Amino acid sequence: MRQLMLIVTTIFLTGIAGNLFAQGGTAGTHKFMITGLGQTSFISEQNENSTIETAFEPIFLYSANKNLLFEGELEVEIEDGGQFFNLEYAQVLYVVSDYLILGAGQFLNPSNFFIERQQPAWINKFPDTPFFQHEDTKLQAPTHIGFQVRGGVPAGKMKIQYAAYLGNGPVLDVGTGLLEFSNFGDNNSNKVIGGRVSILPVPQVEIGYGVETSKVGDSESDFADVKALNNTVDFTYTTKVNALKGGVDVRAQATWLNIDNPQMAPLTFDNLSKGGYAQIAYHPYNVDSPILKNVEFAYRYDWVDQPDSAPSNAQLTRSSIGLNYWLSASSLFKFTYETASEELPGEPGTSSDRFIGQLAIGF
Fold first, then answer.
1. Which of 137, 186, 262, 348 gives the lowest tally of CB atoms within 10 Å of its CB?
2. Could you tell me the CATH number of the domain that includes residue 295?
3. How many structural domains are present in the chain?
4. What are the tens digits of pLDDT across the range 174-194?
5. What is the pTM of this model?
6. By C-alpha distance, which of 212, 260, 204 is closest to 232?
7. Using an 8 Å Cβ cutoff, are 144 and 183 in contact?
């Protein structure tokens, strides 16, 4: 924790110095801001001890001028009986024009809509992430280390958004057939290449398609030519419904991860995993009741289906019912009840329930 405070203090003082001592001793355009979020969760799961977890995620934003920007997020968590410190992302951005931005560093995966747009605790309607983003059943990289280009262009009355990137690729675990997505290093000289394109036919609707591919086997090994291909589609619809005196928010994402079958032991099976989520939320913010107008109702269904012949071959499904109470535009209480089931080939299915209460704030 002392290291964290030292980092925060150093960056803060550096930002002040940048403002005070601009080139030539004259006032510059340097701007610095700290924002972020915090959350605390109470988790009670069937046949498990209840626990309390907390996290603090400061976000640092710096502008050298109107074209040169920096953003970075640190994550400090207390969970699973330990304290964890993580660099969520840190990248330099250069605004070339109204339609093009260049970026370099560690950035949130542009093809993974949930992670890039929905993951922050005060934005996510639920206190946890869908199965296909969990550590043991992850189908997409949350971040990449490399370079990206992105932007948006008008197309008549529509808008098209785009992103393309290159970075360190995922690593194949030959024993399980799964991918390791840390991206801190690469096990070969082939880099991951990916991108996402989305269409906004009207401001309330966005339809996106993302793809990324790379070689994932160790260089100079028997699996050096094994490739992974990830396809993902996402959908967003948000609108105000006068008859309901509030707003409706619908979101969904589905991912298909296909890893080559090299026909060499132990990877002698078709390695296709699928997963995703669909959710709907209703917030009656225009009702007369001062209490009910702050209440939001939400439902989410999510799943992961791993290959039957793989060592890790779980089929997971979950239904989540949420009741949120908004304290401000960026802070809320979440109360969620979940029922999850797991099926393994040739074995009877099992199910479990859990309750999560969370207080989240963005600032």
1. 348
2. 2.40.160.10
3. 1
4. 999 999 998 899 999 999 999
5. 0.89
6. 212
7. yes
